[in-house]
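Rather than argue in generalities, we have chosen a single entry, letters for residues, whole numbers for local backbone shapes, without further comment.
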Amino acid sequence: MTDSGTDILERLQEHRALQGVPADELAWLAARGSYRRFDPGDVILPEGADLRSGVIGLEIVLTGRFGVHRDGPGGRVRVMEWSEGDISGALPFSRMKISQSEIIADTLVENFSLDPSHFPDLVRDCPTVTTLCVHTMLDRARVFRTSDLQGEKMASLGKLSAGLAHELNNPASAIARSAQKLGESMAEADRAARALARVGLTAAQLEALDRLRETCLRTPPTVSMSPLERADREDLITEWLEAHGADDSAAEALTETVVTIEALDELAGHLEGEVLDAALDWVAAGWVVRTLAQENESAGARISQLVGAMKRLTHMDRAPVAEPIDLEQGLRDTLVVLGHKAREKSLSLKVEVAPDLPRVVAVGGELQQVWMNLLDNAFDAVDVGGQVSVTVQPEGNGVLVCVLDDGHGIPKEHQRRIFDPFFTTKAPGEGTGLGLDIARAHLQRHGGNIDFSSRPGRTEFRVRLSSAPDSRGETGS
């Protein structure tokens, strides 16, 4: 193909998107634009390029296909493509100044390009083409917005999944360990019970043994012993067992109970020798079985709590409609799932929620995405051992939620852009630059707003939401 004006005009007349454009407007384009050709792999537009520099113009794809790529948390992603019959590139009235994507030729591409310097004349002389460009721009914005929202939702889902996996690992591992030990301990308890049955206890001896067993099965004190205190107590019980001719294998288990030397002396007043040894083995084995069962129960309850928090966070069993929301429950569920990040950095986390807090009307899943973004950003912003606090209190006819961290702060030169789409201060691949933009959009749809203040050592994001009518004093279910 040649790049003569006659050939270009004929191809523009055949172009799918330009059907119905008056001949004089097509001739106007042909006289001012230029033919361009790209080989597979050629970059038509690098990411971060200044769109005002003329590196790209109004691009009319004659043949071939371009891919539009963007960095995301999971790596490079393809967000859309241009192919034969499409119009894209720089468009009149577009407010975008910096390219947010990289555009690469997938195949051999033939293109017709109009430099942006002609846009003022285009608007004046070619109303049909201008209208077509505006519609194209709106359609493209919808595609990008849908892709952006989906990408951010996937990123948020990834954070939730990672957080849940971290939080589930400990109780699941605890159950696995306890279940293995429980089988061994039950076998030991059976052996001890058979040994005790062989010695044949009198009624008085059984009564004394029951008293000691009940003492051992009482709930231990809430204040844990230090390692030194535990070692001293185990030495004391071991010495007692050896002094009474009993096997010291029960010492470790008895140390963890609330049994006293006086209680052991009372039992020794009724039992001695082989009978005392069998009785103490049976008591110790029973305590171990009971303890392991309690550990399994506690770990199972923790898993149930985490699953419940995830279910509430995702609102998986509810339609995406606005309804009265319990803010405290939502914030605490978010902290439960993100708890591993706080522990990894040894953060000091403080949550203060005013009593009788009114509910707010919102789409629960969207509001949870706001808390997820704000808290995740706060955890990322602080150093190891840093502090993050969340306060929730009534304010006027609504609720004020503040997320405060003592990180390095947001540089002044970045503060005016912090809510801009795709702007991020995180390393490439660690953030989409969409979290705060989407959070603000969600809040605006709910009649709320978000602002912030930042300086080194103190960054605070403030979210304001209107309360639901007649909701003050209600509590979450």
Remarks:
- The mean pLDDT is 80.
- The first helix runs from residue 5 to 14.
